[in-house]
Amino acid sequence: MRVVRTVSELRDALRPARREHSTIGFVPTMGALHAGHEALMEQARRECDVVVLSIFVNPTQFNDPTDLERYPRTEEADVAAAERAGVDLVFAPFAQEMYPRGATIEVRLEGPLVDTLEGAHRGSDHFHGVTTVVAKLFNIVQPDVAYFGQKDAQQVLVVTALVRELNFPVRIQAVQTVREPDGLAMSSRNVHVQGRNRERALALKAGLDSAQATYDGGERDADAVIAASVAAMASYEVDPEYLAIVDRVTLEPLRTVEPGALVVVAAPVGPVRLIDNATIH
Description:
281 residues, alpha/beta, six-stranded parallel sheet, three-stranded antiparallel sheet, 9 strands, 17% strand
């Protein structure tokens, strides 16, 4: 396995694979790898001839400088995890490689996919940062398949729209959320959820489970299902920033809950803001 820092190094390293028409799988990350990232790498390894992992804490998708500063950076451990997972190339650029001095490019989507939910609470600039860096990474790596975690469901939809709008020849593969044994969704931010807050963090999964249980009990009115979910979270002393039931493709709010509806939730737990989602079945 090789670790490369520059675009030219990565392209040189991938040249033999392109000559041989090998399938290139790509796992873009911001590092601080956990079991969820391992699932992405393992699926890429099973399905592709060559696997590329990127590690880049993208500054343009953080609306809060403190959040950017606090984001965990564990490159040595990340590289070791990538090697164990069978990754062929790790692309770990410095900020000036991705955003050279004088760079002005920004790739933006408009509409509900970027303006609602996370976009409404973090600002649409968050997703403009995501689409800009993903577009750059797709141009740099030129993968056949890119792997993203379903935990960030809105991000998956945004990236899928980006690929469609810009005609990238990339297949987006969403991989099921990986959870701790007690149900907490794996996240790089979980390292900051400690003590009593670790127990309170289970509120998000409790809210999602309540939505499914309420639906299973025969309730179909979205407002009633949401109310039950919020009440379940309150028992953990957690109030959601949002808890919504939306169309799984458009993110439009639903008035009636149906199989396939997406339940999305975000909530602050101590110093950390967590997100999660589940599909009604």
